[in-house]
């Protein structure tokens, strides 16, 4: 077991240095590594497989709600980016500019897309003519670039991977419903598939997306008490439609502007998975998206029949699960550590004595609980235990979030919590941006969202003491 | 049927103007449309679904041969691109350069990847240390950018979509085997899934990839007699390994350089599908990658029971096929034209009389053959007919290629064929680049490949008359 201890020691403990623990997990679990390109990461096979599973799960949900994938250009000409004023102001400072093609200087600069509202609108202006063309429910999977100063794998990188949905609707009502529908899909995906509890709410004016009328968000709380905005859904009204001159003939035969939404979830959700479920032994993956759901480790592999049995079990499980058999020469101890580090939800141990007894041992990654299982009911037990892992992860994360959510009724109290107790702070707000900025300056917290589930914590704004009707979640954020 | 005629008339006939026919099909079948970004296309839902099916088919083949997907950075710093001399010379003139991030001028320019050998090598130098780390069999799906002057959707665009495999091996033999394995996978995919017959061969020194020792290719012949390079597979030896200082400890405990391959297939394969199978009614799609394999068109839809029956059939077929029911108000004639234009392999017609007779009509897109099918054996017949469509398409394309493949034994003959009969020209070559260039100048043909299946057309080089042992395919190319 010497080797196992050594491996475990290789990562910094969460308590010692949470940021270092995070990057250690990213590297040792082989999710990603730094590249020679500043601020860009190499997503390694294990991280890519995780992202592909996330994509497949979301694609199925998008398709079931009538959405179609498209592929838009990587570049946005400067004049196109400038068509919507708020949008360009929000994004121009952080885009990468292409100025030369080969040796030739371009007449017009192109930016590498930081988001694609402008490209979609340009296309929609070509293809939307009648109410019969609506709704348009498009989505794309791609990478986008934002010129960030400091970067961390998955959480904040210059290039990141995401999906961006862009839809056009006949009425404001339809578009607002879509905005909410997609937020609910994200919330359901986060909670059911990723076992990450989230708070659903609306961003304040200050925090909303550049060009949007309103931005909805799901906010998750990480192990260290910092918040992570996990997906957003925006309602644009007809602002872009007007800027891009997108018009359709309505049912009443008048020319109208369609109403727009966009919504996105990015590779930073992998950061959320790591920081919600991970522990000092490494990654812990929610089964629905784990590249390997069950790893089979033969015990006393050299003994007759063990490897054959392990292969049989692999074949059986492969029919319904993502399964890996590790029949390498590495020691059992090394393998235990390795797959704990990689966060594989279930470990299946099979040795000579198990074979005699027609059984195997299943070990849950989330709580290390062992269950001896008859091989006759293997598939059923694996299904049951994978569900138990998801439920266990969700319950644990929910409990932690509840324990780390505080209420404050005045500035002093809020500052004291912000300084000493990491987590969400629920507090009333008068609605003035000035108070929002003051809380940021004094206590270092930003508004996370105006949750859909409101509570009346007190009657006054936590900052200015004026009458306040909105309860907000505040916190430090990634 | 007036509307059907009208729709058909909307596209230019192949004979009249092949290039215009091509762009008409791209637009009317809604595969792609031009974007406001010069040289970049918008791939629409139907084109994206086609590309996703291509990706799924190839991914399954890559996975079955042990390959893993990764995601590499979009940018290559100038210094990294310059590490391998032949490679940078080949690509530097056609890359897009990022010079500014926000308002800041970059200290080092970044190019948008035109291909990712340099990025993979940079990463491999970090993770390859021992022969135990080999082979590394990575692939990525992404878009790349090459600064093209004139562009056409799918065939030549500034940004295009592709997969690029990059592998590292212990020995030259292993790497060469991989290069051949991947070429064979491409050829098999092209012929079995896309029904496109291809010639497998090796590129000449002049035509090989920048930095490669040898480039293998599959070449297909389009309807108009022009060749289309449909996928390539490159063997690099250890040139990049040395340039990037990638070294591993071998089995004999000495430091060695690994041997490298790369291979790619791009969205121009969609151009090949269009120009191999399409006709004057539009697109014709090979079933294996068609977004819709069967379209169900209810006839006399308003009659009682028709729509219910159509929905029943859709549900039955959806279990095993990609199926669409068009229950819109458009006329049957309009629908016939629409799905012919979109190249749906099978059309299923169901009307009141069919229901009484417990039957339906299946119509093949490739030859418009109608088959009356008992509903009791619907699934079996659909399977059979989809296979027949694939076989029919392949046979037709193969016959055409054979008819359009000529032999030439001297320059005059070759020039005469090149001027008057579009197609492949088989001719002997002495091996001198001078002759290759001369044929380009005089007859406007380039060497397509040195086919693996050699024939002795004559004993002398078609150009200089010197002794020649190699038979080449020559032609005009996209």
Structure write-up:
Two copies of one chain form a homodimer. Chain A has 478 residues and is of the alpha+beta class. Chain A folds into three domains: 14-277, Bira Bifunctional Protein, Domain 2 (BirA Bifunctional Protein, domain 2, 2-Layer Sandwich); 287-388, Rossmann fold (3-Layer(aba) Sandwich); 405-475, C-terminal domain of ProRS (Translation Initiation Factor IF3, 2-Layer Sandwich), CATH 3.30.110. In chain A, 36% of the residues lie in helices and 27% in strands. Chain A has helices spanning 2-9, 18-28, 45-64, 78-81, 85-91, 117-127, 172-193, 239-243, 268-277, 306-318, 332-341, 352-356, 378-403, 411-420, 433-443; strands at residues 32-34, 41-43, 68-69, 75-77, 96-101, 104-112, 136-145, 159-169, 199-202, 214-221, 227-237, 248-249, 255-256, 259-266, 294-298, 323-325, 346-350, 359-364, 370-374, 405-407, 424-429, 446-451, 470-475. In chain A, the strands form five sheets. In chain A, strands 3-7-8-14-11-10-9-22-23-21-20 form an eleven-stranded mixed β-sheet, sandwiched between helices. In chain A, a hairpin with a 5-residue loop joins β18 (359-364) and β19. The radius of gyration of chain A is 25 Å and the shape is globular. Residues 1-6 of chain A have low confidence and may be disordered. β5 of chain A pairs antiparallel with β5 of chain B, so a sheet runs across the interface.
């Amino acid at each position: 077991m010497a080797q196992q201890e050594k491996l475990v020691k290789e990562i910094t403990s969460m308590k010692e240095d949470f940021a270092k623990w995070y990057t250690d997990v990213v590297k040792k679990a082989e999710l990603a590594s730094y590249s020679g390109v500043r601020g860009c990461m190499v997503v390694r096979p294990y991280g890519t497989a995780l992202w592909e599973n996330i994509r497949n799960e979301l694609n199925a949900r998008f398709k079931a709600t009538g959405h179609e994938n498209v592929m838009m250009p990587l570049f946005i000409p400067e004049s196109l980016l400038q068509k919507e004023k708020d949008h360009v102001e929000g994004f121009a400072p952080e885009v990468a500019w292409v100025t030369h093609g080969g040796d030739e200087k371009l007449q017009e600069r192109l930016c590498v897309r930081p988001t694609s509202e402008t490209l979609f609108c340009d296309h929609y202006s070509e293809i939307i003519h009648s109410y019969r063309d609506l709704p348009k429910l498009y989505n794309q999977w791609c990478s986008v670039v934002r010129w960030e100063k400091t970067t961390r794998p998955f959480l904040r990188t210059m290039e990141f991977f995401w999906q961006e949905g862009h839809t056009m609707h006949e009425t404001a009502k339809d578009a607002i419903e879509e905005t909410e529908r997609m937020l609910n899909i994200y919330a359901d995906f986060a909670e059911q598939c990723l076992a990450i509890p989230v708070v659903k709410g609306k961003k304040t004016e200050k925090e909303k997306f550049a060009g949007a009328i309103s931005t909805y968000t799901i906010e998750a709380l990480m192990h260290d008490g910092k918040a992570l905005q996990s997906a957003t859904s925006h309602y644009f009204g007809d602002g872009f439609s007007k800027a891009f001159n997108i018009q359709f003939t309505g049912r009443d035969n008048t020319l109208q502007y369609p109403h727009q939404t966009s919504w996105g979830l990015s590779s930073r959700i992998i950061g959320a998975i790591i920081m919600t479920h991970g522990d000092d032994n490494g990654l812990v993956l929610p089964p629905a998206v784990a590249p390997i759901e069950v790893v089979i480790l033969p015990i006393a592999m050299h003994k007759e029949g063990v490897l054959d049995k392990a292969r049989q079990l692999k074949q059986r499980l492969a029919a319904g699960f993502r399964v890996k058999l590790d029949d390498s020469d590495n020691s059992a101890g090394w393998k235990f550590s390795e797959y704990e580090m990689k966060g594989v939800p279930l470990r299946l141990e099979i040795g000579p004595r198990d074979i005699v007894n027609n059984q195997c041992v299943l070990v849950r990654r989330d709580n290390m609980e062992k269950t001896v299982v008859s091989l006759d009911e293997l598939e059923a037990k694996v299904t049951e235990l994978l569900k138990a892992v998801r439920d266990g992860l969700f319950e644990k994360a929910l409990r932690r979030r509840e324990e780390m959510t505080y209420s404050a009724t005045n500035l002093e109290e809020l500052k004291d919590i912000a300084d000493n107790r990491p987590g969400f702070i629920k507090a009333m707000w008068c609605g003035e941006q000035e108070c929002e900025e003051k809380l940021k300056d004094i206590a270092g917290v930003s508004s996370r969202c105006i949750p859909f589930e409101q509570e009346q914590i007190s009657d006054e704004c936590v900052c200015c003491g004026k009458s306040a009707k909105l309860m907000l979640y505040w916190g430090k954020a990634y």
